[in-house]
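Action item from last week, closing it out:
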Amino acid sequence: MHTRKVGPFDVSAIGLGCMSLSHAYGTPPSRETAEQVLRGALEAGYTFFDTAAVYGLGHNESLVGEVLGPDRAKFTLASKCGLTNAAATERGIDGRPETIKGTCEGSLKRLKTDVIDLYYLHRLDRKVPIEESVGALAELVREGKIRAIGLSEVSAETLRRAHAVHPIAALQTEYSLWTRNPEVAVLDACRELGVAFVAFSPVARGFLAGGVTDVASLVEGDLRRAMPRFQGEAFQHNLKLFDGFKSLAAEAGCTPAQLCLAWLLAKDPIIVPIPGTANPEHMREDAAAEAVRLSPEVLAKAEALVNAQTVAGNRYSPALQASIDTELLPNETVAA
């Protein structure tokens, strides 16, 4: 796989988001299947693995550490703090320096490593100035416990404030054909500051890969059940969009998931998508997207078909929207 820059690291152009191996989208896979995904990803050329303390409250970090620990030198490891208490036993936004440092100590142990390559503040804590949170992360850099600092789900303004305290290597936010919020301001800020943009949920939380055709099939606790785009009339509208998207992927000679990923890779060399999956075959399908080259005509058709105006429903519920710092699109409202 070709590489892209994330801070000081050269990483595979497509990384692996590990969250779904522990929680969020349905029942987590068996340990055997999770190992097949992780080990298989390394063999398929992935060199960028993304986890977090909050994923399964430590379970995901432990899984990654146990399975990939013996090959630690072969990949760039990213994890996150700020969405749990220091012990990673309870969820909740907490960007206090003491919590950040305590969480990092636990992450190092679970990941079976002496240093985390890229450590993100998972969410902005509105009760703590970003300068204080990033200051704590900078201390971890000086102590040799982390190599680079990242931020997740923050605005361009917050990124600039953070970058003034310590260079930010990467900003991670949802970005796909159906979630265009980064295009409001933060992508431009990343280009301006030399910050890599790591795109999570690049296949629209599985929707644009054909993974959700019936919301009733989603298990209780699946995060998508509470998302407006997966509810009622909005979901039925979006299903019709997917029919056309699937046809466009066939025209381009790739799968719908590969069309999503190839579109992102074509947008800007600073972008590194990190699709997640609990399926070894899907993991390999995603890796193959790096070799897909889309014509200008296909890129234009994809953007015209799936965009902020054609997708129905807000990205998050009002409660979740209130917990993030990212910019809204002109047609979005917090209360919708």
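Closing note: DSSP finds eleven helices and ten strands in the chain.
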